[in-house]
Structure to design on (130 residues):
């Protein structure tokens, strides 16, 4: 019964979500690279000990976010490959297990968005002060 097909979520819908998520995650990575470059410029111009500590803090947060984003992108890629295999044999239907996994990934993506935008706003405040 657990593997029974559902009509609620089509494979094409899942693939569309994957595409949207990857585009957003790529944009986050791009922004983090820009932030890192900007942080280097701030570091060269400002020798304050407090600023240097905050620069280190943001460098760590950027590294953690890039790692988290890459892990999520890998999970999406893995799920996409699984879905493509199923598409060949299942008439565009997903299993309950697939739908649950997809819903967990959707929650992870939303959490990543929230964390990223919090970081973005924190960093913008730091840049304004420096």
């Amino acid at each position: 019964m657990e593997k029974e097909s559902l009509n609620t979520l089509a494979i094409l819908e899942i693939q569309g979500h994957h595409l949207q998520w990857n585009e957003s995650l790529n944009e986050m990575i791009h922004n983090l690279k820009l932030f890192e470059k900007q942080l280097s410029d701030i570091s060269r111009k400002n020798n304050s000990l407090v600023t240097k500590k905050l620069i280190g803090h943001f460098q760590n947060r950027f590294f953690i976010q890039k790692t988290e984003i890459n892990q999520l992108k890998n999970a999406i890629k893995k799920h996409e490959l699984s879905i493509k295999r199923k598409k060949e044999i299942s008439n565009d239907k997903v299993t309950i297990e697939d739908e649950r996994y997809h819903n967990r990934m959707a929650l992870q993506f939303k959490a990543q968005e929230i964390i990223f935008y919090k970081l973005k706003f924190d960093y913008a405040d730091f840049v304004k002060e420096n």
